[in-house]
């Protein structure tokens, strides 16, 4: 029977593909768009962001249910050894507050939510983590209709939290028909990348230490060419134009080869790559 095109699908209708918890296997997770375009009140690290994505992927089939989820701590380590990073990340995620744009009574509003609820961690190195999501976060996920598909093998490859954030921003938008660009104010881009308020306040520093390195990694490891152009008023950069274009089949093969390749030497290969960066 033909699919009802008039039906409005929810983000939770989308399914996880493959094995997102295994860094050596192909996997795709679904992340609600509202949890991609967030403003971090409490800055998160690359490890925090990656672990949070894995907690979402692991819980996805029952994420809108008020239940306790469980995951092996070994699945959260990714390519790292030891549980210290996990413990620190869980604490930061519990205390992190994010601002999410929603619609309330027909108007755009800002909702402030905690990213992670109560949890129990077994002390054994081979133990498990039992965790929950806050009620208000579950409500956001339940109503979501916009999402990004994240290839988790690519997610494991990033070495900058700004690169992972930019990848997610792009993945939310690549499915939009007839749209390959979007404008942001400099402050909006800072917030979406998760740049702390007291860091990189001058645009040249933001560009050098956050935007350009993120573009290099995303262009080397994702399936899209991504550029960010400056829109100036006089000498001042007021807006940034994010642009994306799908790579060719051959270029995607090259990306897959790099993702599956040993990480040794990757940073140098990315630095030496020539990419269409619009600065």
Notes on the protein architecture:
This protein is 38% helix and 25% strand. 33% of the residues are buried. With 279 residues, it is α+β, with helices and mostly antiparallel strands. The strands form 4 sheets. A 3-stranded antiparallel sheet has the order 1-2-9. A 3-stranded antiparallel sheet has the order 3-5-6. The protein is globular. It contains 10 helices and 12 strands.
Name some characteristics of this structure.
279 residues, alpha+beta, three-stranded antiparallel sheet, 25% strand, globular
Short note summarizing the structure:
The chain is α+β, with helices and mostly antiparallel strands.
What level of helicity do the residues show? Answer: 25-40%
Largest sheet: 3 strands, antiparallel
Shape: globular
Give the helix/strand class: alpha+beta
Task: Give helix and strand order, one letter per element, not per position.
Answer: EEEHEHHEEEEHEHHEHHEEHH
Q: Low-confidence parts lasting 5 or more residues at pLDDT below 50?
A: none
Terminal Cα span: 49 Å
Number of helices: 10
Strand content: 15-25%
Q: What would you report as the Rg, rounded to the nearest angstrom? A: 19 Å
Mean pLDDT, all residues:
90
Widest β-sheet, arrangement of strands: 1-2-9
* Total number of strands: 12
Write the layout of secondary structure elements.
Layout: E1 17-18, E2 27-32, E3 38-40, H1 46-59, E4 69-72, H2 73-77, H3 84-95, E5 97-104, E6 107-114, E7 119-121, E8 128-131, H4 135-143, E9 147-151, H5 152-157, H6 161-173, E10 181-185, H7 186-193, H8 203-221, E11 224-233, E12 236-246, H9 249-260, H10 266-272
Antiparallel strand pairs: 1-2, 2-9, 3-5, 4-8, 5-6, 7-8, 10-12, 11-12
Helix pairs in contact: 1-3, 1-6, 6-8
């Amino acid at each position: 029977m033909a699919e009802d095109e008039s039906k409005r699908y929810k983000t939770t209708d989308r399914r996880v593909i493959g094995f997102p918890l295994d860094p050596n296997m192909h996997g795709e997770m679904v992340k609600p768009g509202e949890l991609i375009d967030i403003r971090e009140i409490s800055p998160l690290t690359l490890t925090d962001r990656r672990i949070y994505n894995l907690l979402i992927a692991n819980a996805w089939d029952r994420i809108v249910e008020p239940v306790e989820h469980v995951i092996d701590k070994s699945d959260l380590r990714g390519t790292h050894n030891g549980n210290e990073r996990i413990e620190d990340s869980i604490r930061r995620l519990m205390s992190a507050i994010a601002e999410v744009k929603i619609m309330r009574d027909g108007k755009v509003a800002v909702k402030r939510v905690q990213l992670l609820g109560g949890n129990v961690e077994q002390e054994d190195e081979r133990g498990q983590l039992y965790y929950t999501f806050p009620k208000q976060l579950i409500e956001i996920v339940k109503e979501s209709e916009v999402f990004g598909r994240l290839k988790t093998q690519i997610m494991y490859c990033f070495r900058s939290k700004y690169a992972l954030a930019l990848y997610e921003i792009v993945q939310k938008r690549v499915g939009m028909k007839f749209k390959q660009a979007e404008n942001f104010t400099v402050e909006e881009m800072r917030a979406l990348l998760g740049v702390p308020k007291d860091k990189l306040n001058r645009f040249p520093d933001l560009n050098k230490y956050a935007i350009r390195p993120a573009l290099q990694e995303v262009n080397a490891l994702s399936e899209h060419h991504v550029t960010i152009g400056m829109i100036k008023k006089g000498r001042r950069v007021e807006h940034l134009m994010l642009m994306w274009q799908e790579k060719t089949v051959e270029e995607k093969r090259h990306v897959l080869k790099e993702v599956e390749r040993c990480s040794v030497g990757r940073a140098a290969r990315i630095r030496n790559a020539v990419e269409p960066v619009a600065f």
